[in-house]
Write a structure and sequence with these properties.
With about 325 residues, this protein is of the alpha+beta class. It contains 9 helices and 14 strands. It has 3 domains: about 1-60, Winged helix-like DNA-binding domain superfamily/Winged helix DNA-binding domain (Arc Repressor Mutant, subunit A, Orthogonal Bundle), CATH 1.10.10; about 65-265, 2-Layer Sandwich (BirA Bifunctional Protein, domain 2); about 275-315, Roll (SH3 type barrels). The protein has helices spanning about 1-10, 20-25, 30-40, 65-70, 90-100, 150-170, 230, 240-255, 260-265; strands at about 45-50, 55-60, 80-90, 105-115, 130-140, 175, 180, 185-195, 200-210, 275-280, 280-290, 295-300, 305-310, 315. The strands form 3 sheets. Strands 3-4-5-9-8-7-6 form a 7-stranded mixed sheet, sandwiched between helices. It binds biotin. The site of biotin (BTN) has 19 residues, from helix 5, strand 5, strand 8 and strand 9.
Length: about 325
Amino acid sequence: MKEYIQRALLEHSDGYVTGSALCKKFGVTRAAVWKVMEELRAEGWQIEAVSGKGYRLKNETAAALSKVLIEARLEHSMWNRLVVLDKVDSTNTYLKRLAEEEAEEGTAVVALRQTQGRGRRGRNWASNPGGIYLSFLFQPQPAIPLEQVPVMSLAVAMAAYKAILQVANVQTGIKWPNDVIYKGRKLCGILSELCGGVDTGIYCVAGIGVNVEKSVIPEELQEHAVSLEEITGSVLDKNELSAQILKEMEWEYRNLDTCVQRYAEICVTVGKEVSVIGAAEEFKGTAIGVAGSGGLIVRKEDGTETVVSSGEVSVRGIYGYV
Ligand code: BTN
């Protein structure tokens, strides 16, 4: 009933949904309908009740993260199973568990906070309320060739970059391979993981964490991280941003063959002096492009060129975080 009421409110956002129609539809009392409205209000839905008219959604953007509000923006999309959670250990871990059970390509998870958010290189990812934590499951048939897997993670960065431009009108940059940054500070982090085996087949789980509100960034990270609230001065609608990321992600996935070329034009690491820190060696050079594999092409100081793969190294811009 709650989901039906959410949809009814959305569909009639320019008018009223009558209490009597809802009572009739579900064979419940007015008090039962009122209880659902109260629940929605507690979740952040601004619902006006006018006697003789009914209920009306006053301001859609104020609503909390909602499956209905996200799906309302996704028509005919590949995301046929969207799970929206208030709290989860990690959206990537959750999706991996689902995939081991029965989930398939087209499943996505969005959460408002994570208790064990994971970052690259086994680090933690601080995941307080105030961010969006979103993961996708990809299980293409036929499987993506292994050497193409790093391109998937560039595509995820492209999706976040484009969605932020579209919804927040903020021009960010992508630091190779997939940090979305603004003026040298990190706005989104992306973790792509290749998983599976004989039973499940190979699949890829990719997750994005977006710093939406200022409060999401712990004190000690403020020098290196930034939020959309700090950049724009307002708190964005998380449903709209989630939906746009899902849309852009689908587009990028379907256009993976042109991803590297488009990515290379945006990647702020290209053209910069970089310091490559790998397990076996460390060197300085200039990033001169992005290879078809998604690796960074670096011209070393001796003039030789090498392709650096994201799994192996950490690339630090010599001047600052970029
Ligand atoms: C990084 O180290 O920059 C990557 C951070 C990735 C964080 C996202 S939040 C959603 C998804 N779930 C996780 O546990 N991690 C990723």
